[in-house]
C-alpha cells in the first residue's frame, strides 16, 4: 500500500526533527564562549539548563492539544478528550523519572559522541523487558529474549568502539567511559518511567499530546526550581562551569549573550522536541508503531553520518557492527521478523493487522520518547 503525501511528510518530519534534537544539543555543547564576570572562554556545558529547554518543548505539546480540541469542538470527534476523568498528578512520578533520565543523558552527551549517545539508548529494551516481567507480570516470548541478548552484544561492541577510538582533549577516555555508563544508567530510569506509564497512566486513555504536555509541565517547573540550589552545590570534576557547581544558569545566559549561535542551537533543541513528539504520535496513528521504530533507527544513521561529516567524531568500523547488532535486537524484540517469516512461509504478503501500541510488550515507546 503506497503512502500518501501526508504520511510521507509525517515520516520525514519525525526523521528530521528527531535528528535535529540530538545534533542541536551536541552543537551547543561544542561551543566555546566567555562566561559572566569576565571569566575565560570555556565550553558550553549546561546539561540541566538544556533539560529545562527540552521540557519546555514538551510543554508546548499541551498547547497543540488544546488547539486541536478547539478545532474539533464543533465536530463529533471524541479522540481529543479522555474517555474518563483522570488526576493530572498521575503524571508526576513518570515526569520525575523523565527529568532524572533526561538530565543524566544531557550530562553524558557532554562526555561522549552523538552517535554513541543515540546507539546506547537502545539499552532501554533490556530494562523494559526485565521490568515488564518483574512488575507487570508479562511473559516474554523467545524472540524477545533473543532481542535482549542481541542488544547486550550490540552495546558491548559499541562500547569497544568507544574504547578503541582516538580521544581528543575534549573527550578523554575516562570521560567517554563515564558518559557511556551514564547513558545506560539513564535507560534504567526511562524503563521505570515506561512501567509507571503502563501501570497507572495508559488505562485512562489520555490523549498522547496531552500526556506529553503534562509531563513536560511538571518537568519544566520542577527542574527550573532545582536550578536555584544547583547554583550553589559543588560538583568538582563533573562541573562544566568556572564556579565548579552542579549548574550555573547565569553563566549559561552570559555565554549565550556572547555567542548568539548557542541560542540558535537551544531553540533548535526546544522546537524539534515538540515537532518530534507530534510527528511520532501521528506516525503511529497514520502508519504503525513498527514504522515509528524503523524511523527511529534511521535517525541513528542520520545522526552518525552528519557527526562524521561535521568532523565531530572519527569513523570506527566497529560502530557499524554494533549498530547492526542493536538493530537486529530491536527488530527481534518488537516482532519485526514475524511479517518477513510469514511472507516466506506463505509466499504472499500478510494481511495488515491493526497495530495498537503496547508498551514493553513490543512496540510502545515512552510517552515522550525524545532526547
UniProtKB/TrEMBL annotation:
Alphabetically ordered keywords of this record: Membrane, Mitochondrion, Signal, Transmembrane, Transmembrane helix, Transport
Keyword presence, Cell membrane: no
Gene field: SLC35F6
Assembly and interaction partners: Interacts with SLC25A5.
Membrane topology field: Multi-pass membrane protein
Protein name: Solute carrier family 35 member F6
GO (cellular component) term, any one: cytosol
Family under the similarity heading: Belongs to the SLC35F solute transporter family.
Function text: May play a role as a nucleotide-sugar transporter.
Annotated transmembrane regions: 48-68, 89-108, 120-138, 145-164, 176-196, 216-233, 261-281, 293-312, 318-336
Amino acid at each position: 500500500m503506497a503512502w500518501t503525501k501526508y504520511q510521507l511528510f509525517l515520516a520525514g518530519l519525525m526523521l528530521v526533527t528527531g535528528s535535529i534534537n540530538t545534533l542541536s544539543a551536541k552543537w551547543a555543547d561544542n561551543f566555546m564562549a566567555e562566561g559572566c564576570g569576565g571569566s575565560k572562554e570555556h565550553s558550553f556545558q549546561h546539561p540541566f539548563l538544556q533539560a529545562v529547554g527540552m521540557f519546555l518543548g514538551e510543554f508546548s505539546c499541551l498547547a497543540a492539544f488544546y488547539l486541536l480540541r478547539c478545532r474539533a469542538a464543533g465536530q463529533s470527534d471524541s479522540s481529543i478528550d479522555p474517555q474518563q476523568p483522570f488526576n493530572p498528578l498521575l503524571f508526576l512520578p513518570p515526569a520525575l523519572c523523565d527529568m532524572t533520565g533526561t538530565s543524566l543523558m544531557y550530562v553524558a552527551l557532554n562526555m561522549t559522541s552523538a552517535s554513541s549517545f543515540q546507539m546506547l539508548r537502545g539499552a532501554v529494551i533490556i530494562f523494559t523487558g526485565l521490568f515488564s516481567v518483574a512488575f507487570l507480570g508479562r511473559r516474554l516470548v523467545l524472540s524477545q529474549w533473543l532481542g535482549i541478548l542481541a542488544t547486550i552484544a550490540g552495546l558491548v561492541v559499541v562500547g569497544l568502539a568507544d574504547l578503541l577510538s582516538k580521544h581528543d582533549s575534549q573527550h578523554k577516555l575516562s570521560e567517554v567511559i563515564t558518559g557511556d555508563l551514564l547513558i545506560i544508567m539513564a535507560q534504567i530510569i526511562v524503563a521505570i518511567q515506561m512501567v509507571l506509564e503502563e501501570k497507572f497512566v495508559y488505562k485512562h486513555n489520555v490523549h498522547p499530546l496531552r500526556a506529553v504536555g503534562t509531563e513536560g509541565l511538571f518537568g519544566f517547573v520542577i527542574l527550573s526550581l532545582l536550578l536555584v540550589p544547583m547554583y550553589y552545590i559543588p560538583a568538582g570534576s563533573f562541573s562544566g562551569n568556572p564556579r565548579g557547581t552542579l549548574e550555573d544558569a547565569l553563566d549559561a545566559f552570559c555565554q549565550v549573550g556572547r555567542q548568539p549561535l548557542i541560542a540558535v542551537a537551544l531553540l533548535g533543541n526546544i522546537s524539534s522536541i515538540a515537532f518530534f513528539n507530534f510527528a511520532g504520535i501521528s506516525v503511529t496513528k497514520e502508519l504503525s508503531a513498527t514504522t515509528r521504530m524503523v524511523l527511529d533507527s534511521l535517525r541513528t544513521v542520520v545522526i552518525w553520518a552528519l557527526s562524521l561529516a561535521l568532523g565531530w567524531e572519527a569513523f570506527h568500523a566497529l560502530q557499524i557492527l554494533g549498530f547492526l547488532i542493536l538493530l537486529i535486537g530491536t527488530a527481534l524484540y518488537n516482532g519485526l521478523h514475524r511479517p518477513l517469516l510469514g511472507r516466506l512461509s506463505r509466499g504472499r504478503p500478510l494481511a495488515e493487522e491493526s497495530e495498537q501500541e503496547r508498551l514493553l510488550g513490543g512496540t510502545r515507546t515512552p510517552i515522550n520518547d525524545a532526547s
